[in-house]
Design goal:
The protein is 78% helix and 0% strand. By secondary structure, it is mainly alpha-helical. Helix 5 runs antiparallel to helix 6.
Length: 223
């Protein structure tokens, strides 16, 4: 029994020494871990709460857009920007607001909505769509240099053909036929042949006297 007590005392002394040496470190590590978990959980809750509230506002914006109420559409989108910037619903709202604003002749408001998304959007695809639409608006206003600058921004690779096509439109509007043809040719080559819009680009090239070359490939006859 004495031996057992000595072993217990020795183990207890070792534990006391270990805790004295590493106790504070272990305690603070646990505190940090628990704190990080609580912070992450709180962040997720905050994000979910923001998304839900943004969705409610987007539904209100959508109803206003369907009615063609441009003033309410603009006002609700402003609320989305001010309170839920970065939310996907807010970025989708920018495109919807711009659509209504353009339809109602509020060109400056539409430009502002699209520019906000192009500059501030976190979703690269939505920001790319905003740049393409904004370039089109600026082209219609004959602000050709500004329109081309929009197409020089960072845009995902999958939009490369559409960017080249829009660049061709702007160059053609400027009377730069040769440059427009090159842009359309780039768009035609980069676009998936299965996409119907490719035929529209082909029509543009044909109208400019530069139809795409017809493939010389002839399939072999069946044996």
């Amino acid at each position: 029994m004495a031996t057992y007590n000595l072993e217990q005392q020795e183990q207890l002394d070792q534990f006391k020494h270990f805790w004295k040496t590493y106790g504070n470190l272990i305690t603070w590590t646990l505190v940090l871990c628990v704190g990080a978990y609580a912070a992450w959980t709180g962040y997720l809750y905050w994000q979910n709460d923001r998304a839900v509230k943004a969705a409610v506002l987007f539904e209100e914006l959508d109803r206003a857009a369907i009615k063609g109420d441009v003033d309410k559409t603009t006002r609700v989108f402003s609320d989305l920007k001010d309170n839920y910037a970065g939310a996907t619903f807010t970025e989708q709202g920018a495109l919807l607001a711009a659509q209504v604003q353009l339809a109602k002749g509020k060109t400056d408001d539409a430009r502002a909505s699209l520019q906000w998304l192009a500059d501030k959007g976190k979703n690269e695809n939505l920001a790319a769509i905003a740049r393409l639409r904004l370039a089109g608006v600026l082209m219609d206003l004959k602000k050709y240099d500004d329109a081309l600058k929009q197409l020089d921004g960072s845009i995902p690779e999958e939009y490369k053909a559409l960017v080249a096509d829009r660049r061709g439109d702007i160059l053609q509007a400027q009377g730069k036929k040769d440059e427009a043809v090159k842009a359309y040719q780039s768009a035609y080559q980069d676009m998936d042949p299965a996409v119907e819009y490719r035929r529209f680009i082909e029509g543009k090239l044909t109208a400019l006297g530069a139809p795409p070359a017809v493939s010389s490939f002839v399939p072999a006859a069946a044996p």
